[in-house]
Amino acid sequence: xxxxxxxxxxxxxxxxxxxxxxxxxxxxxxxxxxxxxxxxxxxxxxxxxxxxxxxxxxxxxxxxxxxxxxxxxxxxxxxxxxxxxxxxxxxxxxxxxxxxxxxxxxxxxxxxxxxxxxxxxxxxxxxxxxxxxxxxxxxxxxxxxxxxxxxxxxxxxxxxxxxxxxxxxxxxxxxxxxxxxxxxxxxxxxxxxxxxxxxxxxxxxxxxxxxxxxxxxxxxxxxxxxxxxxxxxxxxxxxxxxxxxxxxxxxxxxxxxxxxxxxxxxxxxxxxxxxxxxxxxxxxxxxxxxxxxxxxxxxxxxxxxxxxxxxxxxxxxxxxxxxxxxxxxxxxxxxxxxxxxxxxxxxxxxxxxxxxxxxxxxxxxxxxxxxxxxxxxxxxxxxxxxxxxxxxxxxxxxxxxxxxxxxxxxxxxxxxxxxxxxxxxxxxxxxxxxxxxxxxxxxxxxxxxxxxxxxxxxxxxxxxxxxxxxxxxxxxxxxxxxxxxxxxxxxxxxxxxxxxxxxxxxxxxxxxxxxxxxxxxxxxxxxxxxxxxxxxxxxxxxx
Length: 543
Prior knowledge:
Blueprint: E1 11-12, H1 13-17, E2 25-28, E3 36-37, E4 39-42, E5 56-60, H2 71-84, E6 89-93, H3 103-112, E7 116-119, H4 125-158, H5 163-175, E8 178-182, E9 194-198, H6 204-215, E10 223-229, E11 235-242, E12 254-259, H7 266-280, H8 283-286, H9 288-300, H10 305-312, E13 358-366, H11 375-385, E14 390-393, E15 396-402, E16 413-417, E17 421-422, H12 426-443, E18 447-449, H13 464-474, H14 482-493, H15 498-505, H16 509-523, H17 530-542
Helix pairs in contact: 2-3, 4-5, 4-7, 5-7, 9-10, 12-15, 13-17, 14-16, 15-16
């Protein structure tokens, strides 16, 4: 079709053939029911080519060629020229010159593959044109409505806790396509790593071709298109779009779309998705800043500086260290002093409020098998938790929330939230969050908060020094047996439940029974007595 054709919404020829008031019938030529019709043009010229743009349903009553000897040669030349002009189909009117469609015309259309439609005597050419314009208007209205709905759903998806996978899912649903976000290329992914994807997964060859398109994109906003073959032999349309502004190969992200078809409004829908994904995946959100905040979280929770140095000044394409100090179940040391106070610079931490303020430690464990990994998940969790200080390592999460703000449950995660503590007491906050996470896992709830010490409770009636001495004396038989002590603590916190304690401690329930029995024997107490349990609980809190 000629490039001069305006971007109107075409009408499939099959729509006109099914129109009950027209009575059109295809009698020869190609049988592609989805042949697009962009215009209707009536002409009785012997050579209509100079007056066609391409994509027309050309209507003629054959006035220019009455039945005569040599008509076969004439019709063959006429059809060949019409195909050369790019006409979509030929409509032949029965009247006033011809009583039937000329046989030579039908044979010529079969040879050249031009759809030939018989227009019955009672149907005027004006009626055919009017039906085409009505169908175009209805189709355009449908496209605008679909575009509006797609824009609303994409904007809603971008506001969700995990916006990038949500936007990809909505885009895939509207296009009936597989959508994928490619990250920078690396040794294991020369065409770019698949950071997130949604929709029906195409064959491997199609995915490889789409990845190659994305890898060839130039820096900054750009696009590339290609084709591939589906599992059933159908044609797949491949398109890759560069995201964001100018960037080097180590920073480049790209959107890939693999669709079996492409409609008029699809380009505008993809355009909005590209804008949203560019904003959501900006390097200032998911790039080096994520590495620096991971390092800061690990330092504040007791990591050795040498273990996190690579995160503060990584070389291009070098991933961060995977050490996980300060994780639930381990003892964390106080925050490392002496960090410069300029935020956002390598090797620095945000300037704390006077006196260090208070912090809430959050530990988490991923539920199920999520596909949203890496930098995108870190950015989503940072937005959901209300803090940039997030360290995500596979299925484990550590976060530091400044102040005493409310921490909400996050989709796909089980969270343990410690009580707010001063910066100097992050060790206590870490242990509190670890215990809360074990309870959340054991009770199969999305979030458990560690309870702060209540003012005026029973513990406040006892001198802290005397309470600590009493607790240590009572638990002295368990000194040197940390597994017994921690099992006793978890078992008491879960009201003596063997199964939930086993889940929280990640051991077999018989192991829990053996440890509790051994602890009871060493302490020489009856752990079935509620008074004994209460006394031990206070001892564990005081010691």
